[in-house]
Q: What sequence folds into this?
């Protein structure tokens, strides 16, 4: 399983389907946003080890519920600011996971356009869904109080 580091500090990652939990454990990932249509196999159930959030949506030329997407992104950015390591993943690790990771970056002060560039640098093939890419590209940085 490939895990792609998005930020420079090793706190934000994207990946395709999880076929084993060891790569996440090795990277200290403690927060998983699963955007795929199936739950992952053998989700760890050790108490106080992993936060697993499931928000499936389709990789179609339509955006997901933006209120929920931005709420997850705000949560992800907040957890990263507190030192947590966050993974956003979907079936192939190209569109849905990159969209959420990009919105997380905007909640960390990035412009959406810069987030698109970074995601495409770090994950070859990312954001070929033009609707997702265009939405992300026009987002301003979020100024959290």
A:
């Amino acid at each position: 399983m490939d895990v792609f580091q998005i930020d420079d500090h090793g706190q934000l990652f994207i990946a395709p389907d999880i076929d084993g939990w060891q790569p996440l454990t090795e990277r200290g990932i403690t927060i998983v946003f699963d955007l795929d249509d199936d739950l992952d196999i053998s989700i760890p159930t050790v108490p106080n080890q992993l936060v697993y959030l499931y928000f499936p949506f389709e990789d179609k030329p339509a955006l997901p519920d933006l209120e929920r997407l931005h709420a997850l992104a705000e949560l992800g950015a907040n957890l990263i600011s507190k030192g947590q390591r966050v993974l956003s993943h979907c079936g192939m690790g190209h569109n849905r996971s990159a969209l959420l990771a990009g919105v997380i970056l905007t909640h960390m002060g990035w412009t959406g356009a810069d987030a698109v560039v970074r995601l495409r640098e770090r994950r070859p093939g990312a954001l070929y869904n033009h609707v997702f890419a265009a939405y992300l590209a026009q987002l301003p940085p979020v100024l959290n109080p």
